[in-house]
Design brief:
By secondary structure, this protein is an alpha/beta fold. Among the domains are: about 245-310, Glutamyl-trna Synthetase, Domain 2 (Glutamyl-tRNA Synthetase, domain 2, Orthogonal Bundle), CATH 1.10.1160; about 315-350, no CATH class; about 360-440, Arc Repressor Mutant, subunit A (Orthogonal Bundle), CATH 1.10.10. The chain has helices at about 15-30, 50-65, 75-90, 100-110, 130-140, 185-195, 205-220, 250-255, 260-265, 280-285, 305-315, 320-325, 335-340, 350-360, 370-380, 390-405, 410-420, 425-430; strands at about 5, 35-40, 70, 95, 140-145, 150-155, 160-165, 175, 200, 225-230, 230-235, 300. The strands form five sheets. The protein has a three-stranded parallel beta sheet with strand order 1-2-3, with helices on one face. A three-stranded antiparallel beta sheet has the order 4-5-8. A two-stranded antiparallel sheet has the order 6-7. Strand 6 and strand 7 form a beta hairpin. The structure holds glutamic acid (GLU). Glutamic acid binds next to helix 6. Pfam families: Anticodon_2, tRNA-synt_1c.
Length: about 450
């Protein structure tokens, strides 16, 4: 059965880049009627925090990306120990004692000689006595997986045929000197034990995949299908890594982005299929095709989320936003009309407060020089609030009569004087909401 996982480390909030990984794995599982596992990669006790795990779940729930079960790596240390023993017994695991400084020096020498900076395996030549002596002097070493020096090949669900020379990769460290298991070993054990059939993750994991394939094989597991999606860049192709902090899912949610806007965009961005606003996750599942994604870096522009969000927001019935509107202090008698007027003129419901400010306090008038005289004539013709449905017509008729203006030359200056803007809601509908018109002062 198709089984996928999303495997964040609970060391921070998840962002749009993580969402891509989560979404693809979710969609593959759901499309196949399979299982989607949320796996918390929390083997680092210092950096992993329950509050981040909770926040990740909250973010996924907000989006409707439901998981079938949660697994925590910190619960599975016995299993990782057993796997380490198995690798030792099979001669695929060795202890190495180089300090970070020594490793750095080796790398620099290799680079100077124009060679790739691959670990030279000198620890393999240590005798038992030498290891004892090093252990006494430096404490426990790290444990490295001994790669088989052959080509590692797989058909990648996005990148196509991949072939990596294992000799060009350092034997990966799977256990740190302090005994902490590293993600690579834990991930491999989990993928085997949970029957993971498909793994989609960022292309920064391609080398990991090569080594993980050999570890899975060494442990007698089935190798899942791998696919590596391209990494997101900013709109200009610039690295997004530094800005990802402001592109966390909770940030986007706080800014009023609608879940379906985000999902609709991310399910298509970087693929040959067009971005289409979907109204349900089922539609997204149906329209998802992993093979349509390309390997080129994917440009992400957060501004694309807002027109999509605006569509969703404008279609909401009053009941869906009534609480938010009331919280702004809009009187109940005006609230439904306020929604009718504002809905077409906002990107997110966060923009409602600006419209309510305008209704309550009036706007700074915008008056062009050539309209000054006309506005001076028009304002005394407008009574004080409250207004009703007939106010706009009665007023503009009177101004027309008094100034001889008509059409755009009549309506636009009045709109700008009342709202301070060139565009906005239908004025006849807006007038009854206005508690103040500052141009009258
Ligand atoms: N915790 C890893 C990460 O966030 C998981 C990678 C994987 O999917 O195996 O990069």
């Amino acid at each position: 059965m198709t089984t996928t996982r999303f495997a964040p480390s609970p060391t921070g909030h998840i962002h749009v880049g993580n969402l891509r990984t989560a979404l693809f794995n979710f969609l593959i599982a759901r499309k196949a009627g399979g299982t989607f596992i949320l796996r918390l990669d929390d083997t680092d006790p210092e950096r992993s925090k329950q509050e981040y795990a909770d926040a990740i779940m909250e973010d996924l729930e907000w989006l409707g990306l439901t998981w079938d079960r949660v697994e925590k790596q910190s619960d599975r240390l016995d299993r990782y120990n057993a796997a380490a023993d198995e690798l030792r017994a099979k001669g695929r695991f060795y202890e190495a004692f180089e300090t970070p400084t020594e490793l750095d020096l080796k790398r620099k020498k290799q680079l100077n000689m124009g060679r790739p900076p691959v670990y030279d395996r000198s620890a393999l030549d240590l005798t038992e006595d030498e290891k004892e002596a090093l252990r006494a002097e430096r404490g426990d070493g790290v444990w490295r997986f001994k790669l088989e020096h052959e080509r590692i090949e797989w058909h990648d669900g996005i990148l196509g045929d991949i072939s990596i020379d294992a000799a060009s990769v350092s034997d990966p460290v799977l256990i740190r000197a302090d005994g902490q298991f590293l993600y690579t070993l834990a991930s491999v054990c989990d993928d085997i034990d949970f029957g993971i059939t498909h793994v989609v993750r960022g292309s920064d994991h391609v080398t990991n995949t090569a080594t993980q394939i050999q570890i899975i094989q060494a442990l007698g597991g089935d190798v899942p299908s791998f696919a590596h999606h391209s990494l997101l860049t900013g709109p200009q192709g610039e690295a997004l890594s530094k800005r990802l902090g402001t592109l966390s899912l909770r940030d986007l949610r706080a800014r009023g982005v609608e879940p379906m806007a985000l999902l609709s965009l991310m399910a298509r961005l970087g693929s040959s299929q067009p971005v289409e606003l979907r109204s349900s996750i089922d539609e997204i599942i149906e329209g998802f095709d992993l093979s349509a994604f390309g390997s080129a870096p994917t440009k992400f522009d957060e501004r694309d989320l807002f027109p999509l969000t605006a569509h969703i927001v404008a279609a909401k019935p009053y009941d869906a936003v009534a609480d938010e509107i009331r919280a702004l202090g809009v009187p109940d008698a005006l609230a439904p009309r306020f929604w009718e007027v504002a809905r077409e003129n906002i990107m997110t419901t966060a923009d409602l407060s600006g419209w309510w400010d305008l209704c309550r306090d009036g706007a700074e008038p915008l008056i062009a020089d050539e309209d000054r005289e006309m506005i001076a004539t028009a304002m005394p013709l407008l009574p004080d609030p409250p207004y009703d449905d007939t106010t706009w017509k009665t007023w503009t008729d009177a101004v027309k009569e008094a100034t001889g203006r008509k059409g755009k030359g009549l309506f636009m200056p009045l709109r700008k004087a009342v709202t301070g803007m060139e565009r906005g809601p239908d004025m006849a509908n807006l007038m009854p909401l206005l508690q103040k018109v500052r141009a009258k002062d």
